[in-house]
Design brief:
about 200 residues, Trna Endonuclease, Chain: A, domain 1
Length: about 200
């Protein structure tokens, strides 16, 4: 059975244009007019899009490090890290040995050849990171925020690496912070202090 459908009338097409296509085209036209005649607004939009894209890539890269690392060691880490506070919380939950292995892999992602030394007889050096024939020596302290790295700990690390450095430097990395005395001691010496938030910038 066939139905005879009459062709649309000119008035019907005019209604369709007036109430559907014309408003859409008008909105598009007004948007571009406003965008190109208000450069301040356009600049804000461009900056906002860039920031969203930058942080999206940053957290995606950070998530990939965690995922690749945790899958190898069967350690549960979040698939999507939402903010820095949550990231530090997960790092502080690691055991000291897991944290040392994580730091070694962070440097490995940056093109270093790494070796985890850690343990009771590590001589104050937890990780050796080598690139272009130069060795950097790393000590890792997985602390909660209530405990800071003291000047005596940094001084002991410096004593452990002084005779071993040959063009490289020492990294003292913690999930917490350093005391002001520790930071002053490191000034002018081949030691880079990396606290929890600087560590987040690395990953």
């Amino acid at each position: 059975m066939y139905f005879n459908v009459p062709p649309p009338k000119a008035s019907d097409l005019q209604i369709l244009w007036d109430w559907t296509f014309y408003p859409i085209l008008w909105i598009i036209k007004e948007f571009f007019y406003f965008f190109f005649h208000h450069w301040t607004f356009a600049l804000i939009v461009i900056v906002f899009v860039y920031i969203k894209f930058f942080f999206r890539r940053k957290y995606s890269f950070r998530s990939n490090i965690f995922n690749d690392w945790s899958n190898d060691r069967h350690i549960t880490m979040p698939n999507k890290l939402q903010d820095d506070k949550q990231t530090l919380y997960n790092l502080r939950r690691l055991t000291p040995n897991e944290f040392e292995n994580f730091i070694a892999d962070v440097f490995k992602f940056k093109g270093y050849h790494t070796e985890v030394i850690g343990g009771a007889y590590d001589g104050g050096i937890d990780v050796i990171a080598e690139r272009d024939g130069i060795e950097d020596l790393i000590q890792c302290k997985k602390y909660f925020s209530s405990r800071q790295v003291t000047v005596s700990e940094v001084r002991d690390f410096y004593g452990a690496i002084t005779d071993r450095l040959d063009g490289g430097k020492g990294y003292f990395i913690t999930t917490s912070r350093f005391t002001p005395e520790a930071e002053r001691f490191a000034e002018g010496r081949p030691i880079e202090l990396i606290d929890g938030y600087r560590l987040l910038e690395m990953i």
